[in-house]
Amino acid sequence: xxxxxxxxxxxxxxxxxxxxxxxxxxxxxxxxxxxxxxxxxxxxxxxxxxxxxxxxxxxxxxxxxxxxxxxxxxxxxxxxxxxxxxxxxxxxxxxxxxxxxxxxxxxxxxxxxxxxxxxxxxxxxxxxxxxxxxxxxxxxxxxxxxxxxxxxxxxxxxxxxxxxxxxxxxxxxxxxxxxxxxxxxxxxxxxxxxxxxxxxxxxxxxxxxxxxxxxxxxxxxxxxxxxxxxxxxxxxxxxxxxxxxxxxxxxxxxxxxxxxxxxxxxxxxxxxxxxxxxxxxxxxxxxxxxxxxxxxxxxxxxxxxxxxxxxxxxxxxxxxxx
Length: 322
Known about the structure:
single chain; alpha/beta; D-Maltodextrin-Binding Protein, domain 2; 10 strands
């Protein structure tokens, strides 16, 4: 574990303990909704339901799937929501960083205007192929694509999502050509890879972990600096000759802009407690998530860095929204 990560987790633990004392004075009087910007079964859906099931606000907390436009539909709904503590959004790096880097104001919402609640989890992407592929490692995958330019397709959770930009960055770095086939969420992208309708994906680890472990998919590389404990036999990109190809996807929770501090602090404290619940954390870790559960302030700083990073990647790769 890096020094930066230990510091982040230590600060989060301290704030988690202090959170309830700061957040007294607000309680909801009707059910609370957590919007999920993708279809059921993907990482955002998993995290939203873990949080919703464990928050103790005195009212029911419901996760509601509102997919469309790589999270823009849900983002626009949160933009229109009143800052009264009854509507939140659990979404991905795409929803809260890459969409802005790729489309700017055209997405119809500003993710940096939302009220940060918590950076919930991080996870690497995994380069995965259907078992019918002849590629057994990264070098063979590159050679296979170069021998068949434009003949194969890769699935993603949507235009501008982290899995999309990861593959586009990969194509730039390797000089390969593989067609983009977007879906509404990672679960749908994985389903068509399982069916053999597409040939590869750079999917979040939790989405494909069970399939890889069961032999239904073949993992070629992880986009983390080190091998992941849930897939210890899968080498990193750097181990296979692609240095500095590190992409960490993440899931986070936001509230509407101008959410009052007492509401923000109460919800943030409950969300972090839900994520750090022993059973929930164990389950998420086994799926490939790294639970971080930051404070709102930590998440705000992290988000700003990610928006800047992906804006630079989009410009350098000359990626245009469709």
